[in-house]
Inverse folding.
């Protein structure tokens, strides 16, 4: 038991980070599932984090209420900016959402209430493991249900062929907006949870670098199922820590592993179809032997 | 335990007693050794290493060797928390030096404070760091202690009536420096002709400087890091701006002269340290650092070097019992009583004002030196 207590005392923040990154990867998976390549999720995370942190710091709201605030604020912003920008597609959408992310970062940087470049410090420690587990489970279950619902099928149809989906009678604009906004909600909640166990937030945590990190986790894990993003987030969070013994070389090895994965597994680590294929091959081979 | 192994362990203990009298003193070092903040973290690590090696060469602290457990925190807040927890709960260190950036200290400081382990920052200058709690220490001098002296000295020397201000507004360090400058100028009733801003990575400052030139200030106050500051000075001279500069802590780097050459003549800088400080401890430090690492030390290395000396002085008064929580607590109680003369001159701690009724940590109580740039060098300003 003592060994576990020591382990938990050392690595609880790391485990929390895995959960937060999994939520972020899932939020991007949702927007990708509708064929939207968005780089705005880091900004939504920031909006959620700042909203929740300001609510607990200045107004002393209870944590669940602050979390709700951290979910609603990015949703409202997503609805407002989503309407015009979601007319774009492909790289053009990526560029527009990237610009939105930069605007958000610079806005936070120059506002008085957000503490500018010095950020907000002294945020109370309110996030516990249970919060993250429950929210991650609810998000995972919800997304799994959405995937198999009319809404999820519509997302998939839009991703595969927008024109065909439109001809089928799917309202493409409102479906895209729904995916974008739900993604923003997930990212905002992740940001709010993160702010309440790291004591401190500053604008540079929600910039371009973070947006790319989220994208990397999702793509590395694979976007064909919900397990992929969670797996990608887990690996990318744990890998640098596991390789701490390599000291100066660990970031280089980290990068090398990513390159190898992308080269040899272009659909991501978790691809249900590939696994089925492997199983079938093995069975066929077994059956073929005398 | 049977007799044979008892004899054996006694013999072993006797053998150990020859090599090391008691246990080693484990000290954690959490600094940014990779990433953007590594330019500060690496000299800091070198400063610690140099000081620890020198102390160990002289027989350690009360016969105990200092053992540094060095970890990279990458200048990121999550990493800083992870490293702090690893050092506290896995490596079981007595105290931790670091992290490099103020932001990381805001995130990791509460972790150390809750675990009742000293977190000793050597490069964190932001306001409010030590409000985290009584286990947070720093020997880095806050801008609010340095800049009033810099400004008043420069104002007296140049008979300044009005100043222009330029600062980087997207960086925590330069922005907080600006906030202090602003307050100092208000306190000393010096009118500001114009306030201009830039962002990190800018290379062309002519638009801002042209505006400043039009307001004809007696001096230009600049809160920026050395790279940008050097460019600003060179471009100001190019535009025919002759007014002297007054700089913040960011000016205090050899990088200033790589770009600005002699354009920075007459610039006033306040700093807790400069390599030309003639005090004996500093002369020894500068020579020893150069001999070991083959490069000139900077302010961050000097402060790290002094911090290790401070910690060793505190450890000297602590009786190590082997009971980790008690030893950590004893160290926390011993540190505030230390006063030394190191590479940065005479040093002692000062408890920060309590916040919300909770006790605060300890800031540096140190008098800054005022330097003026002459012939492409920092020269201690003596009033002439």
């Amino acid at each position: 038991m003592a060994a576990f207590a020591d382990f938990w005392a050392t690595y609880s923040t790391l485990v929390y980070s895995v959960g937060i990154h999994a939520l972020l990867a899932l939020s991007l998976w949702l927007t990708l599932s509708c064929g939207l390549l968005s780089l705005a999720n880091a900004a939504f995370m920031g909006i959620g984090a700042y909203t929740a942190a300001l609510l607990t710091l200045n107004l002393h709201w209870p944590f669940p209420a602050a979390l709700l605030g951290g979910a609603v604020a990015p949703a409202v912003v997503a609805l407002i900016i989503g309407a015009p920008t979601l007319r774009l597609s492909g790289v053009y959408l990526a560029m527009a959402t990237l610009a939105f992310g930069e605007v958000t970062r610079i806005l936070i940087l120059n506002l008085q209430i957000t503490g500018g470049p010095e950020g907000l410090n002294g945020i109370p420690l309110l996030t516990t493991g249970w919060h993250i587990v429950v929210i991650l489970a609810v998000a995972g279950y919800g997304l799994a249900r959405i995937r198999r619902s009319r809404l999820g099928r519509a997302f998939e149809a839009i991703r595969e062929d927008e024109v065909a989906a439109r001809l089928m009678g799917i309202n493409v604009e409102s479906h895209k907006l729904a995916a974008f906004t739900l993604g923003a909600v997930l990212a905002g909640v992740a940001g709010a949870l993160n702010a309440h166990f790291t004591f401190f937030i500053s604008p540079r945590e929600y910039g371009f670098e973070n947006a790319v990190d989220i994208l990397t986790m999702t793509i590395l894990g694979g976007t064909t199922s919900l397990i992929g993003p969670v797996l990608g987030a887990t690996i990318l969070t744990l890998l640098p820590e596991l390789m701490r013994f390599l000291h100066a070389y660990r970031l280089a090895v980290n990068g090398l592993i990513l390159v190898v994965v992308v080269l040899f597994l272009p659909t991501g680590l978790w691809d249900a179809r590939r696994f089925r294929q492997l199983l079938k091959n093995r069975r066929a081979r077994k059956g073929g032997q005398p | 335990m049977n007799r044979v192994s008892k004899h054996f362990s006694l013999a072993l203990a006797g053998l150990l007693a020859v090599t090391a009298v008691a246990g080693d003193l484990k000290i954690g070092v959490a600094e940014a050794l990779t990433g953007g903040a590594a330019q500060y973290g690496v000299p800091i690590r070198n400063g610690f290493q140099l000081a620890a090696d020198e102390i160990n060469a002289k027989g350690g602290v009360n016969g105990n060797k200092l053992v540094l457990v060095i970890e990279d925190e990458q200048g990121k807040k999550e990493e800083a928390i992870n490293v702090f927890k690893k050092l506290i709960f896995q490596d079981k260190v007595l105290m931790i030096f670091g992290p490099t950036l103020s932001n990381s200290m805001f995130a990791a400081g509460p972790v150390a404070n809750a675990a009742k382990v000293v977190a000793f920052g050597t490069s964190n200058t932001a306001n409010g760091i030590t409000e985290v709690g009584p286990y947070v220490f720093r020997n880095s001098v806050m801008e609010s202690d340095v800049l009033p002296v810099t400004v008043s000295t420069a104002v007296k020397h140049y008979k300044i009536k009005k100043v222009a201000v330029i600062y980087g507004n997207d960086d925590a360090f330069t922005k907080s420096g600006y906030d202090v400058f602003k307050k100092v100028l208000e306190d000393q009733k010096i009118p500001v002709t114009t306030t201009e801003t830039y962002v990190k990575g800018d290379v062309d400052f002519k638009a801002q400087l042209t505006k400043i030139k039009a307001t004809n200030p007696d001096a230009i106050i600049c809160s920026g890091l050395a790279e940008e500051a050097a460019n600003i000075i060179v471009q100001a001279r190019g535009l025919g701006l002759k007014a002297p500069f007054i700089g913040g802590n960011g000016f205090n780097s050899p990088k200033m002269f790589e770009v600005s050459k002699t354009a920075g003549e007459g610039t006033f800088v306040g700093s807790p340290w400069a390599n030309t400080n003639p005090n004996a401890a500093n002369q020894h430090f500068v020579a020893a650092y150069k001999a070991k690492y083959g490069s000139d030390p900077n302010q961050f290395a000097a402060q790290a070097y002094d911090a290790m000396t401070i910690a060793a002085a505190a450890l000297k008064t602590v009786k190590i019992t082997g009971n980790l929580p008690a030893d950590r607590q004893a160290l926390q109680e011993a540190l505030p009583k230390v006063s030394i003369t190191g590479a940065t001159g005479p040093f002692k701690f000062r408890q920060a004002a309590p916040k919300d009724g909770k006790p605060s940590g300890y800031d540096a109580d140190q008098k800054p030196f005022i330097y003026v740039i002459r012939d492409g060098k920092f020269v201690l300003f003596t009033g002439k």
Summary: The mean pLDDT of chain A is 91. The longest strand of chain A covers residues 120-121. The beta strands of chain A are 120-121, 200-201.
